[in-house]
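dumping these here so i dont lose them again. two proteins, back to back, each one seq then structure tokens. dont judge the mess
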Amino acid sequence: MRQYKIVSIQMFLVMSAAAATLFSSVADGSAATRESTGVVWSMSPRGGVVTDPAFSLSLELTGRWADDDGWVRFGGSGVPSLGVSHDGARLAPNDSDFAVAARVTSAKVPVDRGYSPNIVQKGLAGQGGQWKMTLRPTSRGARGLCRFEGARGRTTISDATSVVIDDGRHHDIECWREGVRIGITVDGHTTSAVRAVGAIRPSTPTTVANKKINAGVKDQFNGSIGCVVVMIGQGSRGAGLAHLGC
């Protein structure tokens, strides 16, 4: 009997370890979700690179940018500046819940048609899926906007509150998906809707402050970014905001 108890305990420990490994893994694209995991970039560069040791993904800064004591200033010079992470598909959520959050300070955004300063994104429109956090200029100031494009369609959602982002102050923005609900949270105020876009599978680099190296001035974010968080899996919405202190 004692031998059976020992074997049973050993089997329980093995199964528990396997379960722990499963729930700490990144979502594999199936309908089931996993415990959230992801990347946290504190925007404190060394040699032009921001690192996240826990997830082993770096963000390479290019163009004219400036290190400002835990923040990185982008834009303002007419020369594209951005951060690029060659993550492959590691930050592609597929069918899973996910969230991308950023702490930003933005200069005034021109109301001219076509301006859409990109804060952080993965994927390009019409090329295998996309998630994107950007600013939407209005006559009353720029508002936060999230874009989602997946296998079943594309959609955007704007912050419906009166929070103005391009006022030179610090703001926390999060774009997220939970099941078929997508949303944006700005300084604690949430706007959401039920819209199923399907699997999001981009494999292009994740970029911060612009969509790509040769993008135009209308895609350039002009301001400072102090933290960028991308979380994938169950609980990612809460985890994204929780890590914004970096």
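---- next one ----
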Amino acid sequence: MQSVRVMHLIGRRSTLGVGGVLEQVAANQVEAGHTARIVAMNDRCGPAIVAGTALGARWGRDPLARRRLRRLIADQRPDIVHAWDAPSLAASASLTRDDSGTAQIATLADPPSANLDAARHAAGFLASDRAVAKALQRHGVDPARVSVAERFALAADPLADQAAFREQWQIPADAPIVAAAAELTRDANLADTIWGFELLRLLHREAVLVVAGEGPDHNRLQRQVRLMSEPASARFVPGESLGGLLAAAALFCDHGLADRWPVESLAAISAGVPTVAAERRRTRAAFGNAKLGYIVGHGDRAAFGRIGDRVLARWEADHTGRGKPARAAEQSALSLGDSNPASLGDIASARASVSARPTVTQDVAALYARVLQRSARSVASGPAASSERGRRQAI
């Protein structure tokens, strides 16, 4: 299989969200023998799992950053420039014309709001869901160039060791972990997660809250934990620890305010972790009929507490042998409608159904194959076919 040179472009590198999906895709490409480089439009290069460059953009359309990007593309001559958000696509689209020898591809997890005139002729698009695909078509993108991901989510790490994670962060083996993962900003609404955790801790004193992520709200959230809870009952861990966290978690929470594609929640569901998320249009669409996904209204702490209590009680019964017979009548009286927490059998079947679906890496590889094959055919049929483009093969 011939190696393919890929330049990934994103506003800012991250281990969570769309940035985390990009990191996983690029790492898998390098492992498969391809050349992948991540270019961040701003100053942060982020994790060094995959080689990267920062362009130092000071605002959305920084001409100096665009000039640096033009030089990078000219120097490295990638086969594919792969943009992972609409601003990065707009910055690179005019630099990857058909005669440049580079195919422009984009993966979008949010419906584009800006004008895509310069980018609508990109060779291929991977949309996180049908809403994004329809938005691209409204912007004039040819539907034949748009693919919809089967499962746009961070891939759960099958080798993650929950015992090692608990030992690293000093969490007892019999303590149920309430998990959350997000960039630590106001939009993540982690204040509600902390409130909800305190409700659960009234009934589950051994429970521990673990939040994965980095961001400007880190210090404020730590102060909130100190004021509302026991500091020893909460941990803040880096985003790259998400794999170990999901291997150990009993419950995952997503109280975010922004109506974005729930990458972290879908990762938790694929890892077999019951997940409670606040009501958002795209979250409801993403969860679909997922057995482990529960949706509650924004600010409905009572509903969150009822579902969380049942989930943690079941986790304790399954993992610690603590029967809690005194609370059996109380738990059976809780009215959850159709939101009954999944059993271990449900968890196993959910994991099997998710693992049978293609990952984002496989979706990207399929898109690359179609684009490069189409490009090779069009170049080979033209009068000025270049030898380099003619030699290209699909991934």
